[in-house]
Amino acid sequence: MTYVYLIVGLMFGIAAVLALYRIVVGPSILDRMIASDMLLTTLILVVGAEMVYNGHTRTIPVMLVLASTAVFATVSVARYVSKQDRTTDTVGTDPLAPPTFTDPLSDGEPLPAVSKDNGGQP
Amino acid sequence: MTVDGVYDVLAGISLLLGAFLSVAAGVGLIRFPDAPSRLHAATKPQILGLMFVVLAIALEAHSWSTLLALTPVLLFQILTAPISAHMVGRAGYRTGNFRKDLMLVDELEEAVEAATRASDEESRQAKASTRDAP
Predict the structure, then answer these.
(1) Burial level of B53, CB count in 10 A (0-12/13-18/19+)?
(2) DSSP code of A65?
(3) How confident is the model at residue A118 (pLDDT cuts 50, 70, 90)?
(4) Mind telling me how many Å the CA of B132 is from chain A's nearest CA?
(5) CA–CA separation, A112 vs B90, rounded Å?
């Protein structure tokens, strides 16, 4: 049984490291939020696995609070994502390169957001 | 094998399955190309992985009251995970944070175009009425 717990711990550790890599590399704020949400999910699962390993049920309230408040971080960030966070290429971008922002008014393509325009006035 | 041994083995298998889903989500986060597909990968351990771990805790404690105490955890996660996924997907679409070439169908595009046309028409009418009014 010890080997099973060792494998489980290693798998959770790998998952957390992969999520952390995605948080660091990005490239957009949404990818980071998705990865941090998944990191929190992994944390909930680790708290549960620790209860199985040590044979107690004392940290069930911790799991409850984490599971019920995990939504707030993602929703509050996703609500305020602006068009400037768009990245043109989502694969293989250098995380240390200076950020290039596309001007949403001059790129010539229609905005995907449903927005009321100001009636043609400048 | 005793009854406790059977419970232990079942709990171990459940834990392994939950951990495997977590690793699969991590690999998906690294390998998948854009935000919506990464969202798809990251939501796998949120429900099914949590179900396996809750099952493992209840099997290890082998008591129904523990399972009852863990049900709200699962319930809250089932209620709130779609909210965050919906908000992220919506923000990703609106900011153009997805790869158009990977999409087979984009049903939302037609709806957005129709809504934009309607809003243009509305503003044109509003402008015309303000010009005629004075």
Answers:
(1) buried
(2) H
(3) low
(4) 15
(5) 11
Q: What is the pTM of this model?
A: 0.76
Q: In B, residues 46-105, which contact A (CB 8 Å cutoff)?
A: 46, 49-50, 53-54, 56-57, 60-61, 66, 69-70, 72-74, 76-77, 80-81, 83-84, 87-88, 90-97, 99
In degrees and rounded to multiples of 5, residue B114 shows phi and psi of -65, -40
Closest C-alpha to A34, from A24, A23, A46: A23
Q: Which of A42, A41, A36 is nearest to A21 (CA)?
A: A36
C-alpha to C-alpha distance for A100 and B22, rounded to whole angstroms: 33
Regarding an ipTM greater than 0.85, the answer is: no
> How far apart are alpha carbons B40 and B52 in whole angstroms?
19
Of B40, B45, B55, B80, nearest in space to A39 by CA:
B45
**What does the pLDDT look like over B65-74, one tens digit per residue?**
989 999 999 9
Local confidence band at A57 (pLDDT 50, 70, 90 cut-offs): confident
Is A35 in contact with B80 (Cβ distance < 8 A)? no
**Token pair 């298998």 in the structure block, residue:** B13
Q: Which of B94, B102, B110 to mutate to test the interface with A (most CBs of A within 10 A)?
A: B94
* Interface residue of A31, A83, A111, A115 to substitute, partner B, most B CBs within 10 Å: A31
C-beta separation of A82 from B95 below 8 A: yes
